[in-house]
Amino acid sequence: MTQVHYANDSEVAAKVMDGEAILINLGTGIYYSLDDVASSVWSSIEQGATTEQVAAQVCAQFDCSSERALADVPEFLATLHAEGLIRTAEEEPCDRVVTTAVAGKAGYATPSMEKFDDMAEMFALDPPLPGLAQTNPS
Amino acid sequence: MEVELEKSVNNDRVAELNQILDADEVPFAALQRSFGHACEVGRIRRFVVQFAGFPVQIQIVGNRWAELVGRAIGHLPRPNEGQAIALHIDAWDAEEVGVLPELGLVDLDGPPTVMKSSSDGWFVGEERHHGTLWLDRRGQHVTGCIASVDALTLDARARPFHKLLSAWLFDRGVQFVHAGLVSEADSALLFVGNGGAGKSTASICCLCSGMGFLGDDFVGISRVAGGFVGHGFYASCLLGNQHIKRFPEIAPHAYPPNLADEQKHVAYLQDGFHRLLEHQKPIRAIALPRVVDAPESSFEKASKVQALKAIAPTSVMYLPRPSKEAFETLSELVASVPTYWFNSGCDINGIGGVVRSFLQNLD
Q: Which of B10, B12, B14 to substitute to test the interface with A, most A CBs within 10 Å?
């Protein structure tokens, strides 16, 4: 059995565009902006991936040693987990993520994420309607 | 009552602000009965207009409130001959009419806003200090009352019924977005960004320069073949004191806030700008306003992710139902049109000309 990381699909809306990602936690209103390396991590997790698989994809895309990736990726995954953006499951190991080799690797930097909580004020003053997703009247 | 604003929202706080009710707790029928009593006492003012092409009938009992509602939505097109009403809105002013709702008004000691729904999701309601409104999603019916016109927030005065209308329209493929929208001929430009980014200023500048105006803060979008159209709903805007001075042509149509903690004025635009109020235009580009230290305004390419970050958080979280579906729609919108920074320079009066020229020359 091995730990597999997945995006928290039920709570998080996400989009990767042109190598950067925007994530919104629909439960809290907090949103995040991910740089290119962090977006690569996120793209791997969207399909479900182990820490090693994520690190391998980072090395394939960026000019980064496997030692560096294996040091940085777990720390970033822990950050994503702490924010409620990903979940982790114990599963049988399998090849679910195909490492995509990229010609002309981009420069590497520690994956980083900006967090924005300015929507919390809007939530306090104008909260969402509960239960609306339960029924589609059409 | 001031609400203590927390920098991070916890689940307990959100749970306090929205509640799920059992069927027998939903006050819809009681509100309908009370509306019936109000109709026996006061005169009904009726508006029949289209919101994003859907015919909506609004009946208000209470002349002062009806006057405000008419100023905000009276410019919208009438339904076509033979079109059936898609949504009925029946509401009254409790103070002016002298009819309290059967179950009483909202407790002023509670939170200023509580959103509620029935456990099956068919009924959704907003209960605010200034009034209560409920939507029957199956019966296509909104009913409720306000405590008094003098208790209405700026938002309620500028955009009557918008929360429940946005829920009802979302069910029909029309999504509210936090954006300004202006037009030139058959092209519209969507201004996006957080509060204070300059959406309203840019939109109002365009209006004052003679461009078409669909909204300065909240508009609707829907998919059509080949892209998206933008929908205007309200002939109103909110103006800070600096705007009142900056736009003297709008100032005569501006009214001060009711509540002590509100700083802006609400301006109704039908009287001075009727011919410029548009209700639907194709969206051709997205602009992210930012103030720059330059003599003139200009456009500069922005990345798609910058545009998505500018539009998505407030637009998605404002919706009555923040959802991945809504976020995906915004992603598609951003992907479908060119995206630009709008560098707002010192020449405020020149903004309209720059935007008009940009739209005229857009491929």
A: B14
